[in-house]
Amino acid sequence: MEPRNMRALMSSSLPDADDAVPEREGMKAFLLVYTRRYGMAKEDAGEKLSKIRHSMAHVMAEAVLQMFPTAQITIGPAIDNGFYYDFDLPRQLVNEDLEEITTRMKAIIAEGKPFVRRVVSRAEAQKQFADQTYKLELLEAIPEDEEVSLYSQGGFTDLCRGPHVESTKELKADAFKLMSIAGAYWRGKETNPMLTRIYGTAWENAKDLRLYLQHLEDVEKRDHRKLGKELDLFSLHEEAGPGLVYWHPMGARIRQAIENFWRSEHYANGYEMVYTPHLGRSWLWETSGHLGFYKEGMYPPMEMDKSDYYVKPMNCPFHIMIYKNSKRSYRDLPFRWAELGTVYRYEKAGAMHGLMRVRGFTQDDAHLFVTPDQMNDEILEVLRFSLHMLQAFGFTEINAYLSTKPEKSVGDPARWADATEALRKAIVAEGLSYEIDEGGGAFYGPKIDLKIKDAIGREWQLSTVQFDFNEPERFDMTFVDKDGVEKRPYMIHRALLGSIERFFGVLIEHYAGAFPPWLSPEQIKVIPVGETFFDYAKELEGRLRKEGFRVSADLGDDRMNAKIRNAQQQKIPYMVIIGEREAQNDQVSVRLRTGKQENGLSTQAFIDMVKQKVESKQQL
RNA sequence: GCCAAAAUAGCUCAGGGGUAGAGCAGCUCACUCGUAAUGAGCAGGUCAAGGGUUCAAUUCCCUUUUUUGGCUCCA
User: What's the CA dihedral at A454, A459, A465, A470 to 10 degrees?
Assistant: First the structure.
């Protein structure tokens, strides 16, 4: 199986980190901000900008050809926030080259040359690009019935469908910036030559460019890797194995808060918890099909007693073993079995990214085994449950993506149709906006993915609900129906948060490290104004801890101002300042992380206030 | 995996062919301190690992490891 398909297999049956491409998503989000600001329809704004960007790409190509007359030009489209152009160059580029290219681009823009479109014959185009082998290849690929057009500005001509701006006068020399140099395969295929890609961002005017660059800074400030270090939440250790996450005490507190909530919600919604091993004999993975389809995504086997054992990349075969442990009746179904199962997958070295793409992660996995009669209700319920969970974590903007049957697939087409329809009906019933990815399902079943938007508009895929027509067959799963006949149950994989590691990363970025009190690793910091009040601070700390809060008193020899600063930098939501007045009157002076001040509060009133916040899961 | 850049104290970074420096954090001491950094002192590094060039390498070259940004947006 092609690697791409294997990835599809994986990502479908469990919520995978595959869809996390934060930077790109961020750019999309920025476009939305832009359109909102200008009150334009998204398409209009997009079209105008994309003309500017595409034209900017041509200007850049002209500049690069000035510097490297022998350069081979390839393609240069407009993209979400700018443009790129891929070149085959006589030498590697360095960052200083970008400066020269920028200077030349500005000069070209200053010339104010018009963009001229010409429709030409194929022969003429071939003549034009006689020494541009990639262009000739592109030319070949243009269908016979399509016309071939050239765009020129100044001395530069490109094979191009357009459209472009009228003239380089419409481009602003102070509204673009070359961002980076990257390698990119010709036509994105690993077997093709590696080209040099130059990325740039371009906007209508300097102000928009500045806005965009500010947005990038904001993204950087929220980076979970940076905040993870600053707040001492987690670490990764190259020497101990890349892509494997260490949760520090403060990170573990957050994880506990997440997991405790997760478990209680699951029990409240009719799930049972199961625990399964981390390893399975090759028999298990041969039966499930993973060794056939997904071997390259798995850690290599370890041999023991003449058998190969594999660390699990998924939990499903284990849950199936539990199912098959007894003869199952229609009366037993549905089963809803959940597990926070830690799985290990071999991610390519270059693919790893902080917590977002790792080699060991914990899925908030569950498998539903249902009769055909129960399917509709179960799907509706699992979707409702999913939305409920996401909303509890502060994600209110949620979009659904429905992936349907691909050409190559297993399972009865009638079952595919029923399952897909069940998914679609559930989306509609929940009033979600959705897109259909026709043929985008895995070979073994249709699925719904849910993507949330974070605080700065970036989309992240979290939940996934996925039918599986493959494994029940392979494991010959059955239940005895009313009529005494053994039948095949429907099997549904689902994860609500995706992976705990990645979800944690998303939470960190969403809240920029300032978690709502119910998730804050440290909810309250008690800060005495001076050493005289250390005893009282300790007493208050004990009292608050008994109330169930995550609290500590700062009894270091820093001065109060420094203690406040430290607590503030740790983004602790409540700072309780105590001194003479408070100790005398059983009061607290509260400084919120937001800077807001609540002085002279009775201690009990403060406790009630924080409890209310924690229980309601509200942000400060 | 491929292209490129990077790796110096716990963290953030400076430096540079003659075996390293700052700020913060840490440790010690002093300080009766009310809403974002009290002061002084001490300690801290095989300059990622291995190899090469050189009288001399942390600095230049090569390899390896890891990290970062890309590798989907179609003339």
Answer: -150
Token pair, residue A519, equals 């998730």
Show which residues of A are catalytic. Answer: 316, 345, 363, 365, 367, 447, 493
H or E element in which residue A459 lies: strand A459-468
Mean pLDDT of all residues in A382-410: 93
Greater pLDDT, A333 or A180 = A333
Q: Which of A183-187, A240-244, A420-424, A606-610 has the lowest mean pLDDT?
A: A183-187
Q: Using a 7 Å cut-off to protein CB atoms, list the covered nucleotides of chain B.
A: 1-5, 11-12, 29-38, 65-75
Nucleotide closest to residue A564 (CA–C1'):
B36
φ/ψ (deg, to 5) at A166: -65, -40
- Domains of chain A plus CATH, in order, are 3-16+269-511 (3.30.930.10), 40-222 (3.30.980.10), 524-616 (3.40.50.800)
Got the DSSP string for A497-543?
EEEHHHHHHHHHHHHTT---TTT-SS-EEEEESSGGGHHHHHHHHHH
ipTM for the complex shown: 0.90
Phi, then psi, of A529 in degrees rounded to 5: -70, -25
If one compares A509 and A29, the residue with the highest pLDDT of the two is A509
Q: Which three-class secondary structure state does DSSP give residue A337?
A: strand
Question: Which residues, 6 or more positions from A372, have their beta carbon under 8 angstroms from its beta carbon?
Answer: A418, A487, A490
> Percent of chain A having pLDDT more than 70?
92
Rounded distance in angstroms from the CA atom of residue A556 to the C1' atom of nucleotide B32:
16
Residue A329 to residue A266: CA distance in whole angstroms: 23
Three-class DSSP category at A257: helix
A181 CA – B44 C1', rounded, Å: 39
pLDDT on residue A580: 92
Lowest model confidence (mean pLDDT) among A264-268, A283-287, A288-292: A288-292
Strand partners, A528: A578
Tell me if A205 sits within 8 A of A175, measured CB to CB: yes
Residue A22's pLDDT is 34
In angstroms, rounded to a whole number, what is the distance separating the alpha carbons of residues A524 and A541?
A: 9
DSSP β-ladder status, A551-553 and A524-528: parallel
Per-residue pLDDT of A112-169, as tens digits, reads 889 999 898 888 888 888 888 888 888 888 888 888 889 988 888 999 887 899 888 8
> Which nucleotide shows the minimum CA-to-C1' distance to residue A230?
B11
What value does the mean pLDDT of chain A take? Answer: 87
Q: Note whether A437 and A391 are within 8 A (CB).
A: no
Question: What would the mean pLDDT of A546-570 be, rounded to a whole number?
Answer: 94
According to the model, what pLDDT value does residue A145 have?
Answer: 80
